[in-house]
Write a structure and sequence with these properties.
Blueprint: H1 2-19, H2 27-44, H3 51-72, H4 88-106, H5 112-119, H6 127-134, H7 138-159
Helix pairs in contact: 1-2, 1-3, 2-3, 5-7
């Protein structure tokens, strides 16, 4: 077998280099596929009767297979590349933070749960809309918001330890 490989090596190199352009596969990968096919054949049927002819056919078949595969593959086109916001770990952490925040908002006293829920709305309501929803004057909304956010901040500080400078945890 080493003699067969040594004999066929220049032919496999030349045939793969000639067939690889336009296949979507590099010549080295094409060569590797042909060598695997040869090893599989040697295990089953034995060496080919005409090794040079077999190599030419095997390279052409592998090149044809690579062309078909490349033709079947489609680019995503308009789909944007994955960014940091699509990272599963970050998404899980964001979801956990939102869940913690929503739970803390629900435990705040007085009018705070309704006010903070309105402020966290994805509709992004104005102060006038929030005041109308809560049935209070727009002028009292700012001070109430400050008190509610202070209360929420104190609650979250006990639940979620904020990292100190340089990444150390308290």
């Amino acid at each position: 077998m080493p003699d067969l490989v040594r004999t066929l090596l220049p032919l496999v190199n030349a045939e793969a280099a000639a067939e690889s352009p336009g296949t979507g596969i590099e010549a080295g990968d094409l060569e590797q596929n042909v060598w695997v096919r040869l090893l599989e054949r040697l295990d089953g049927e034995g060496p080919p009767a005409d090794p040079a002819h077999w190599v030419r056919d095997a390279v052409r078949e592998e090149a044809h297979r690579a062309r078909r595969t490349a033709a079947d593959e489609h680019l995503y086109g308009d789909e944007p590349p994955a960014g940091p916001e699509s990272d599963p770990e970050r998404a899980a952490l964001r979801t956990d933070r939102r869940r913690t925040l929503r739970a803390a908002v629900g435990r705040t006293p007085g009018h705070c749960p309704r006010l903070l829920t309105a402020m966290l709305s994805p509709k992004d309501p104005t102060y006038r809309e929030i005041a109308g929803e809560l049935g209070m004057s727009q002028g009292s909304l700012g001070p109430l918001r400050s008190r509610c956010l202070g209360c929420l901040r104190r609650m979250l500080m006990t639940e979620v330890a904020a990292p100190e400078p340089r990444g150390r945890e308290r």
